[in-house]
Amino acid sequence: MLQWTVYIYVFAIIDGQPLYGNADDRDMCNVYQQETYCIELRQRMEEKDMKDRGSTEEDCGVLTHETDDLKQEPNAVRVRWVKDYIFVNSAVHWNMAKERCENMGGYLLEIDSKSEQDVVTQRSLGKFWWTGGRDYHGDDTWAWDSSKDSFLYDNWGGNQPDIGFEGCLVLTSAGDWHDYPCDSTFFFICEKNSTFS
Q1: Does 14 share its domain with 110?
Q2: Whole-prediction pTM value?
Q3: CA-based angle 133:135:141, to the nearest 5?
Q4: Domain span including residue 130
């Protein structure tokens, strides 16, 4: 037990400096600040010859690189931040996007904060992407499909959402939100709180 406590302590404080000011800093601070902080952390660890203990950018709450090693979705890119995201470059209607995310053990993207919005927008590559946002009753009462939560954060574009039968939410190339008919075809972003396999 003592060894485990010491091990955690080593990663919690280096040279008397805490890795995180508080839980919000770890989870939801600006991604650019986190990436800069991870670089500084790596430098401090190298100075103390601690790099070989296996700590990486993941200890900062972000993973600053992308991979394309997903067997289920060969046309996809994985991005790790506080959550795991898969950007699937295959245009499908909303129900198919939902099904494919669920087949990988995840769900369509649910954006909970401006920080998360910034992370996914930065990697949106000028495309439109399905998210998990739904208006099931056509009355502009929007919620996330998987969690059933109402939006804590939103980034609607001008004159959005439209009144009508556009019940599925798209993240646009500019990063704002638009509602579209669910039978439209777009790329999609899957999300998972743990790592996709």
Answers
A1: no
A2: 0.66
A3: 105
A4: 66-192
